[in-house]
Amino acid sequence: MRAWRASATYDGTRPLRSWLFAILRNVVIDEARARKRRAVPTDESGADGLTQQHGRHPAEVERMDQLVDEWVVHEALRRIRDDQRTILVETSYRGRRYADVAGELGIPEGTARTRAFYGLQALRLALEEMGWNL
Q1: Which of 24, 55, 58, 78 gives a 20 to 30 Å CA spacing to 33?
Q2: Which CATH class is domain 79-134?
Q3: What is the mean pLDDT of residues 3-25?
Q4: Model pLDDT for residues 44-76, shown as the tens digit of each residue
């Protein structure tokens, strides 16, 4: 419904998918803020651990936020070049050394570092296109 209501704001200069992701992100943020405002009180002892309406635990809310973040990063990674994505996943996510990844790919270590540098720039741009300001 939000996309339909905001259709006049779509200018066509960026991909429709990015515009929709930005709307989705805003919906998730609005919902999280609304839940914080609707917090239900705990029992007298305060020991039940429930802080949100519908009995949501803080850890559960945090996990939902983490899942949305993972989904957004996954989508942004999908939008960058394969060679850059490979380097970023191997070095940043899996924690491997540049020299090891470069040797496995058959490229110089400097090339791996350059791909990581430009990959991070491309990732930042992809996230900004999706409505995330870093």
Answers
A1: 78
A2: mainly alpha
A3: 76
A4: 444 444 444 455 677 777 777 777 778 888 888
